[in-house]
Amino acid sequence: MTDQHSRLDVVYRFFSGTGFSYDRVVNLWTCGFDRYWKRCIIGRIHADSQNILDQACGTGILTLRIARAFPDSRVIGVELRDEYLAFARAKVGRTGQGNVRLLLGRAEEVVPEEEAFDCITSSYLAKYADLETLLANAGRMLRPGGLLLLHDFTYPTSPWFRCLWRTWFRLMQAVGDRLFPEWRTVFHELPDFLRQTRWLPQTLALLRRQGFVDISSTSLTCGTSALVSARKSGRSTGSGRESAATFS
Question: In sequence order, what DSSP letters do the residues of the chain get, joined into one string?
Fold first, then answer.
């Protein structure tokens, strides 16, 4: 079995039958920091971005927040699992957010027939992705100067916080199994998966190799996640306005 197929197997094993409780669990699992991390992502997007692609959009948490923050933009969300996309579509219907379009498919394979994107975002995708294909397609879909933002979990480097991190996961395994039995596989397997993933150094190396510029990585919340930012080389046609906030 190829590494690509192994990652897909992990995705289906982790997330099948979990869409109805995803929003609650991701907030609990991250002690509420998911909301802060989403704000960090949105804070990096240019104010004048017109076309934005959110990859692996799940139930639409980030997609809808981007759409609300940029009401004059066109926002496309792509999601592999129809189960999750159904919840995202329901949210769009309830909110009446007219600048959102949702597509079913794998992030590495879906290339919307749109004009070039000003920004491509993702949250919690990189550790499962075929990074070489994902980043190569992002380079093709972005306009010159367009921005790529990838956010995902990382394994804490601080010894004391790593101990706290392991304690929290053990608590989730003990209590979460009873509260959210559909998430048992994630509660028990994700910690080891995060210890083993090398998505961050691999992403940085591939971005350099594929010709992206202004590559940076920001560690968030004591090293429990990271936000990678990079630009497609070439002159930007936009104003280039961007949040200069420093996140920790």
Answer: --HHHHHHHHHHHHHTT-GGGHHHHHHHHTTTHHHHHHHHHHHHS-TT--EEEEES-TTSHHHHHHHHH-TTSEEEEEES-HHHHHHHHHHHHHHT-TTEEEEES-TTT---SSSPEEEEEEES-GGGS-HHHHHHHHHHHEEEEEEEEEEEE----SHHHHHHHHHHHHHIIIIIHHH-GGGHHHHHHHHHHHHH--HHHHHHHHHHHTT-EEEEEEEETTTTEEEEEEE-SS---S----------
pLDDT tens-digit map of 224-244: 999 999 999 987 544 333 333
**Is the whole model's pTM more than 0.85, yes or no?**
yes
Q: Tens of pLDDT along 150-194?
A: 999 999 989 999 999 999 999 999 998 899 999 999 999 999 999
